[in-house]
Amino acid sequence: MAVRKKATKTSKRAESGISVSDIEVSSKTKRGAEKTLKSMGAKVLLSVFIFLIVGIVVGAGAWWFVCKDDCFELVGNDEIVLTLDEEYVDDGVKIIAFGRDESDNVVIETNLSVNEAGNFYSDEIGTFYITYKSECFKFGKLFKVQKVRLVTFVEISEGGE
After folding, report:
1. Do both 109 and 137 map to the same domain?
2. pTM, whole model, 2 decimals?
3. Which domain holds residue 54?
4. What secondary structure does DSSP assign to 67-84, as a single string?
5. What span, in angstroms and rounded, lies between the C-alpha atoms of 97 and 71?
6. 129 - beta bridge partners?
7. Is the dihedral of CA 17, 22, 28, 33 positive or negative?
8. Distance, CA of 84 to CA of 9 (rounded, Å)
9. How many domains does the chain have?
10. What is the pLDDT of residues 83-95, one digit of tens each?
């Protein structure tokens, strides 16, 4: 003999043909629900705003902590004066980006001649440049920083002046 289970509210509603939309709710209950939804909406909006502000502050603090020692600077003098018989041994640049040393990721452009040892020289008198550009994200793509060193070659002085 089969035992019949007790009918649930859903099945009773289905048997009677009543849907949730057909049920009448008192106006007092509706007003209470609307008031609760409005106050919850304001609370949710306030919570989202507070979390947004906290996220921005934490992100800015983390950015500052990671990037506080970042730099892109020339090592040595900006301007150098040499005689035609001298060679210039480049001191390079110091690049720290996002707390990492990126000094090896540099592109050097110059109108000077370079010998096998990597030293700069010139056969003519004048002012020449050495431009340093970074390939790292911060100073190469985000901010596009470059540094320039001027190297001036003068005639060899006779008489020790």
Report:
1. yes
2. 0.62
3. 24-67
4. HTT-EEEESS-SEEEEET
5. 7
6. 150
7. positive
8. 101
9. 2
10. 988 999 999 999 9
